[in-house]
Amino acid sequence: MNRSPVRLAKLLTSDLLKGIPHGFSTREGGTAADLLPDAPLILAKQVHSPDVAVVEAPWDGDPPEADGLVAAKSGLVLGIVTADCAPVLLADMQAGVIGAAHAGWRGAQSGVIANTVAAMVDLGAEPSRIVAAVGPCVAQSSYEVDAPFRAHFDPEDARFFETGREGHWQFDLSGYVAERLRKAGVERVELLGRDTYGDAETFFSFRRATHRGEPTGGRQISLIARA
């Protein structure tokens, strides 16, 4: 897994998604126009769910509640908004199918990754052809969790927890998401390895802002499109 992001304009990009318009924003922000001029930006109402919506056109009315978006239509920009959760961008370039997922621990555990891949397959993708990039999120060194959090996970997930101070662990969210991708049949995964919590100059972080008693409204946006 390549952990070296490439900076292009305002967005961080993935080598695995080269040739697909995409990017992960920083504090500088990002818009659909950064990928495709005049293309609509499609967002869902994110609720930390396993639910995925298929996008064929801009929503007619309020967006659906979903934490994954997939599309096979050209000229659409899919967007995922995050502050510490993991944004995942996916593509089967041969089939022309793209996806985006908002993967906090709860959504990842409940199936948003597997469901996003399955929805892409329904549109003609093959898991073996899908490539995925996991964007900036809270790093393991910054993600301290307690016993009640640890209890949500199975014994087989122990490798994603490092022992911390007494009664606490450090959770590897990006590693856990990458494993969920692997279980869904996606073998080529890039982790950008950027810590939203630790890099205050570059990223917004809900967790950091909460700890500091600062406003918590800042978000990154992750974008992917078919030209």
Overall CATH class: Alpha Beta
The CATH architecture classification is 4-Layer Sandwich
- Uncertain stretches: 1-9
According to CATH, the fold-level topology is CNF1/YfiH-like putative cysteine hydrolases
Q: What is the CA–CA distance across the termini?
A: 26 Å
What is the H/E order? EEEEEEEEEHHEEHEEHEHE
CATH superfamily: CNF1/YfiH-like putative cysteine hydrolases
Family: Belongs to the purine nucleoside phosphorylase YfiH/LACC1 family.
InterPro entries: Cu_polyphenol_OxRdtase (IPR003730), Cu_polyphenol_OxRdtase_sf (IPR038371), Cytotoxic_necrot_fac-like_cat (IPR011324)
GO molecular function, one term: S-methyl-5-thioadenosine phosphorylase activity
Keywords: Hydrolase, Metal-binding, Transferase, Zinc
Topology:
Layout: E1 6-8, E2 11-13, E3 22-24, E4 41-42, E5 52-55, E6 68-71, E7 77-82, E8 86-92, E9 97-103, H1 105-110, H2 112-122, E10 131-134, E11 144-146, H3 147-150, E12 161-163, E13 168-171, H4 173-183, E14 188-191, H5 206-212, E15 220-225
Parallel strand pairs: 4-7, 5-6, 10-14
Antiparallel strand pairs: 1-2, 3-15, 6-9, 7-15, 8-9, 8-10, 11-13, 12-13
In brief:
This protein has 227 residues and is α+β, with helices and mostly antiparallel strands. The protein has helices at residues 105-110, 112-122, 147-150, 173-183, 206-212, and strands at 6-8, 11-13, 22-24, 41-42, 52-55, 68-71, 77-82, 86-92, 97-103, 131-134, 144-146, 161-163, 168-171, 188-191, 220-225. Helix content is 17%, strand content 28%.
